[in-house]
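The following record pairs a protein chain with its ligand, flavin-adenine dinucleotide.
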Amino acid sequence: MDLTFPPEAESFCAEIRAFLEATLPPGFRGPGTMDRAEAEAFSITWRRTLFEHGYIAVTWPKEYGGRGLTKLDQVVLAQEMARAAVPLGRVADTTSVKLLGNTLVRWGTEAQKRRYLPRIISGDDVWVQGYSETEAGSDLASLNLRADIDGDHIILNGQKIWTSRGLDGTGIFVLARTDRAAAKHRGITFLLCPIDTPGLEVRGIKTLTGEVDFCEVFFTLPTFACPSRTWSER
Ligand SMILES: Cc1cc2nc3c(=O)[nH]c(=O)nc-3n(C[C@H](O)[C@H](O)[C@H](O)COP(=O)(O)OP(=O)(O)OC[C@H]3O[C@@H](n4cnc5c(N)ncnc54)[C@H](O)[C@@H]3O)c2cc1C
């Protein structure tokens, strides 16, 4: 199998190599060789540097803050970053850029793309994933977080768990049950909830190693403004 890149990948590859050479000190061995606090500080600075040089979400359209590059360019970027022992973003970008951002690029409305994507790329917004529940892990059809419409608002009631980097999030995307009469694998809606909404509380879970990364998220009737009137309009 020939794993060399085609000629059209060369100019972007050269750009990235020049960036890495100008940015990283000679002999840099990556955050894997640092202690935890040093690696965390590096990750924050490095993420900002990537954003300032246009290396976050390079395939997203330019009008939403991306560079409109190809999937091949994304692969080249990943390879060159790995070669230099540096990450493509922070850990929370796995949920923020990859899970939510890419979903919005594909499925979001124009208004959602303009509102959310640039702030995800800049890192001003960090979205965490709220799927798992105490009684619904792999089996998401068992989820119980309830969402009801009340006039111009959505009200949530229930709990999520195992939310990675929950304490770093500015928002949580959740799957919530919106039609209790429907079959259990239907009647589920994907909602975006700002973390600072009153009634939404994030509590860290301390693991055996003493670290707090996973969280529980409690929804005690937080209320989200929403102008449309039915789930299908939202
Ligand atoms: C590194 C990491 C990060 C994570 N981050 C997040 C996060 O940010 N947000 C989030 O929402 N979740 C997250 N999760 C997922 C969450 O932590 C749980 O691992 C996941 O929800 C599985 O739930 P569980 O552990 O209760 O296992 P269970 O769902 O109880 O599954 C246990 C076993 O039963 C099987 N099983 C489950 N349901 C059925 C069924 N109906 N029929 C037959 N077999 C079944 C499963 O295949 C599995 O073998 C993360 C997981 C990992 C590993």
